[in-house]
Design a protein that fits this description.
By secondary structure, the protein is mostly helical. The protein has a single domain, classed as Arc Repressor Mutant, subunit A. The chain is elongated. It has five helices and two strands, in the order H-H-H-H-E-E-H. It has a two-stranded antiparallel ribbon with strand order 1-2.
């Protein structure tokens, strides 16, 4: 194991993708495009459970509803015609929570911190907060380096 790996708190990937007109025509295409742009899925990713979970979370959010895990599982079962593996759903929900995309309050999930309802603002604030935290530490290290070079 690389010793530095223990220092990593999170990773942030943002991809600059073109947004072709055909992507705008289907919700599934838009979900995949957003997830790919935000580094939530890898290029050529064939698994779709995360996209299905995002679809369900966005659907509940549009109705101003905060689902429980059971609500999410039930809706996924309706959408996919075959119930997903609950452990895989829990895994993805935990990853989304760890990355600040969702939070859990009183057993119910909300996007972001629950203060904002616009998807655009939820993701913007989440990613800006993460980059500001990272650049705060990066800035401290760069200042230390800069001061060290001036002494040489």
């Amino acid at each position: 194991m690389i010793p530095e790996s223990r220092l990593i708190q999170s990773e942030l990937t943002i991809r600059g993708l073109t947004l072709p007109d055909d992507v705008l025509l289907a919700r599934k295409s838009l979900l995949r495009w957003v997830a790919l742009s935000l580094g939530m899925v890898s290029p050529n990713e064939s698994r779709t459970l995360l996209l299905d979970i995002l679809d369900v979370l966005f659907e509940f959010s549009a109705k101003n509803e905060s689902p429980t895990t059971r609500d999410i599982l039930a809706r996924l079962e309706q959408k996919t015609k075959k119930g997903p593996n609950p452990k895989a759903v829990y895994y993805h929900l935990q990853k989304l929570k760890d990355n600040g995309i969702i939070s859990r309050k009183k057993g119910r999930y909300v996007l972001g911190d629950g203060e904002e309802s616009s998807l655009k603002e939820i993701f913007r604030k989440t990613y800006l907060r993460k980059t500001e935290n990272a650049f705060s530490r990066i800035g401290k290290a760069l200042d230390k380096l800069e001061n060290g070079y001036k002494k040489v």
